[in-house]
Amino acid sequence: MKKYVILFVVTAFFVTVSCKNENSQTASSEKYQSDPLPSWNEGKSKASIITYVNDVTNSESPNFIPVSERIATFDNDGNLWSEQPAYFQLFFAIDRVKEMAAAHPEWKTQQPFKAVLENDMAELAKQGEHGLIQLVMATHAGVTTDEFDADVKNWIATAKHPTKNVGFNELVYQPMLELLQYLRANDFKTYVVSGGGVDFMRAFVTEIYGIPEEQILGSRIKTAFDYNNGNPVIKRLPELDFIDDKEGKPLNIQKIIGKKPVFSSGNSDGDLQMMQWAASNKYKSFMLYVHHTDEVREWAYDRESHIGRLDKGLDQANNNGWTIIDMKTDWKVIYPFELK
Amino acid sequence: MKKYVILFVVTAFFVTVSCKNENSQTASSEKYQSDPLPSWNEGKSKASIITYVNDVTNSESPNFIPVSERIATFDNDGNLWSEQPAYFQLFFAIDRVKEMAAAHPEWKTQQPFKAVLENDMAELAKQGEHGLIQLVMATHAGVTTDEFDADVKNWIATAKHPTKNVGFNELVYQPMLELLQYLRANDFKTYVVSGGGVDFMRAFVTEIYGIPEEQILGSRIKTAFDYNNGNPVIKRLPELDFIDDKEGKPLNIQKIIGKKPVFSSGNSDGDLQMMQWAASNKYKSFMLYVHHTDEVREWAYDRESHIGRLDKGLDQANNNGWTIIDMKTDWKVIYPFELK
Q1: Cα separation of B274 and B248, whole Å?
Q2: How far is A224 from chain B (nearest CA, A)?
Q3: Which catalysed reactions does the entry list for this protein (chains A, B) (predicted)?
Q4: Per residue in A252-282, pLDDT tens?
């Protein structure tokens, strides 16, 4: 939950130019059968991934990694799906405030809710981090885990991205879906390790990414168990429990997975500590940064961005020889709908 | 971390009568091939387990459970291994204090360390919960996760139970090992969900239970990431982070697994909320309580015990028709070494 998210949500509501890609390419089914990464252009990034996987899964190789240690961790926002003009979870919070407003007449005069209801993003920005947390708590807490799950499922089924005009769940990266599948086919256990809310993600990403709920790590709020006369529920409380970002990523990986990743993929400085942790693995590890370079098909941003800033991470990736995906040249397509 | 643990550690040091079982039975290898639970006597407990598994894995059954939802959670202390005369992790803490004492001359005069070093368990008991937490923090924190892992591995390799005179890792329940294996053979994902320390367990139980580190949930202390000039470490801090007991069990299951168990096994009131949570599953679920009834081969205790008290849980199990293992009559053997 970052202060600057608010500043950028302004853009989300007023940008009207669609960046919809007109240059989609469809790989032939023949190609899919022979190439594990058909949406990737041939080049250094693709070659380095395939060389790594072939090496560490070859039992004759000195770099062979036992199956139980093949832990692959992926950031979500900006790494598996887009994150502009604001983290998609913020659109959920805003849409929920509007849905819930009828039951909360006081919100008409109470900030930050008033600003949301009036689409006054300049005012919302002024509410700062405190206002953002109020929005999140009002929309993510005060319900049971089952109720929240239903809220997210209902939202994702209909919500549209403000400029792409497709569902947020369609804005996942086709090349990364192929990479996840390729790693799993080679007995890697794929995880999401995101600063986003873990229960928000679990409500819908399993189906898209092929990653079960128990392999999704994220930020979370506190909860309480209520026996509820034999119909127990877990209630979501309006208090932060853990922020799965920066140092939080390796800490959460250690707490929950208990093993150091051998493959780690991210796109921002918030992923850097996870990368450093993977890079220190005694097994040969692979660090992959997605560099957002495609202002036509997706968005272009890095060192100066308030969302998904990639600055120190880019330096360390360059210095240490980590693989950096140039989205513009490395990826044939960005989104799955381009294949249709 | 319970106050009463201290009271019982007194017993650990002075009980000298060995309860070593002389009545071990060896099942023939022929029996093992045809019977998934060869160390279980025929009876209601065994039959109910097999009937349940056959039912919910039968795709023609109205009770069929999809593989992704076959989550089985097992308490550890008193459920997968013994827990008398004190939780085994406490013996680790005591042994570590003795090992570390040379580097801590101040402990000779400082409680609760003085009591441990002088084997003065009456005095240790007087130190109460505060003293116990001091012991735990001195022996479980102040090191990196790798160092702690090595500490536990070194300890378990040589430490002996005070009365059974075998390694603590030999005091696991053979019938439960078979049950874990049987469930996995039927595509259940088996988890440990214990009040014990998660990193303590991860150091050695994977090999014994066949449960990977990422499927072990437990209590934990706080941690910090240190980049350490390119050799990052995670440091263990002397502060509790989460107690995975009572309400903590369903909360931790929801946080980490994100799914309600369909099969849950425990032995104490500390497991009751986990049982209640599983019992509320929309899929047909199975609740299994281990009742310690065998004072000859193991220990006999329930409603009045300070370690592993089973009181409210026993009532609810009886009322709700949950399966209760009568250790004395249901299990042919208790420990794997009885089969040798």
Answers
A1: 9
A2: 7
A3: O-phospho-L-serine + H2O = L-serine + phosphate; O-phospho-D-serine + H2O = D-serine + phosphate
A4: 999 999 999 999 999 999 999 999 999 999 9
